[in-house]
Amino acid sequence: MSATQEKSVSSNTSAGPAESYDAIIVGAGFGGLAMLNRLRAQGLSVRVLEAGDGVGGTWYWNRYPGARCDVESMEYSYQFDESLQQEWSWPERYSGQAVILKYLNHVADRFDMRKDIQFNTRVSGAVFDEAAQRWTITAESGARMTAKYCVMATGCLSAPNTPDFNGSDSFKGDIYHTGKWPHQGVDFTGKRVGIIGTGSSAIQSIPIIAEQAAHLTVFQRTPNYSVPAANRPIDREMEREIKADYAGFRERENREQIAFGSRFQASDVSILDLSPGERTKVYEKYWQIGGLLFLYASTDMLINKEANETAAEFIRGKIRSIVKDKATAELLCPDTVVGCKRLCADTGYFETYNRPNVKLVDVELAPIEELTPRGLRTGGKEYELDCIVFATGFDAMTGSLLRMDIKGRKGLSLQQKWSEGPRTYLGLTVVGFPNMFIISGPGSPSVLTNMVPSIEQHVNWISDTIRDLRERQLSCIEPVVEAENAWVEHVNEVGASTLFPTCNSWYLGANIPGKPRVFMPYLGFPAYVEKCNQVRANGYEGFALSKA
Length: 548
Ligand code: NA7
Fold this sequence. Notes:
This protein has 548 residues and is α/β, with parallel strands linked by helices. The chain is 30% helix and 17% strand.
């Protein structure tokens, strides 16, 4: 049904009338679109506020060359509508950014969503009015709206991190950030390009920029593990098989806990039980399959340092065999735990360092000193550049929320509440912030899973909860402090029992100077889904529900 947007005038406004809705959703990416669809189906009046001029979220902003999903196409899509998943056909095993954006535009059109989305509207703040029990949401333009429910669909990797180098404004050439790539694209032909960072965005874009640019200098602080994506045209026979029972395929994906390629079997062996020769065979098999499934080559990859080191040594061996210049190969070899930072999946990344127009510069020991009018200075040397690409990542998981001024009960700001790290109950809700829901928030499995099914699980939970509240004529839902404390402790405990805290990853906030070091995602998939279902079945265990 179409949203019945009652454009009534709210009484608690001071700077002109605020439009009033049942629910406001912030963000029109995978989360926001699915949420809009579910809430509208309940007959709610809903408004989606989106900073960009189109739908797509992550896939709208990250248009850098080579941007590609590291989850297989047949799994990286919505399952809320059977005919949608039957009619859509993906061209490749791993989808590129443009195709995923096309898919999300198709979804927006097919379900007539645009009429309820307000584009070019960046939300600056949200305040909970305790007397009215409503949220007032403010946009940078000054526009204000009120709503009973506020759903933050702001994404985990959507607040770009741009390090503040000395002399940043002095550089006379062009500066780009992979997470804010120009829509018209960039032509690097004949240019001397510098790229800062060697995370997933850099690893995907470096081979393509290197083909175009006159010269590419890669400034690397920490080397990263990467495995071949083995991308190829989609196998149509496999597509037919999956489509014959898509629901069964999705169910198996959840049950078998494989988030990154459920058609393949996860190994059920500990690598340490195998001889060195057998280990190599196992790793070679997963290397050839390609993609993040490599993390499932043994049962103990992410919990046992010794087991992990065997995988690390295998990948380092691959790097040394691919990269011809010995010194460059050594610089590219990580000494951290495999998977501790998100594993990358590449197409020709290490091979690119064999090109004569590509140079790797280590900025770990000699950090970048400054940008100069002509380029960048590190290790006392100035590199002359025409363009600099910041592939420097994101203020992950909390950045998009904390860059807004969100105030809950008694004027408590989310910044204050999370000053020592994010605190949520189930990664969905926060004490002091009634009727505010976060899709794939910190404390939920989110980035450690296939995001789309995880997003839909949150969307369904939030939508069912709002329906229950309305049916029971309850006004507010808010977690109780004991439940939130216990959940935060549990999330931390599970994280600490793994190898994840051993390196400086964005999972820990360690890429952002001054950010509290807390392992933010919850390692508990798919038990987490059961937990969310139980909480509701038990009458919203851990929540306080209040009447108007
Ligand atoms: P990442 O993975 O956070 O990578 C950012 C890169 O930028 C990483 O190599 C950083 O080095 C580097 N970086 C950040 N700040 C600096 C400074 N000040 N100096 C030098 N180098 C710096 O972001 P991506 O966009 O590549 O990928 C994010 C996720 O998107 C990815 O995990 C996939 O899930 C998709 P560091 O490692 O911190 O030393």
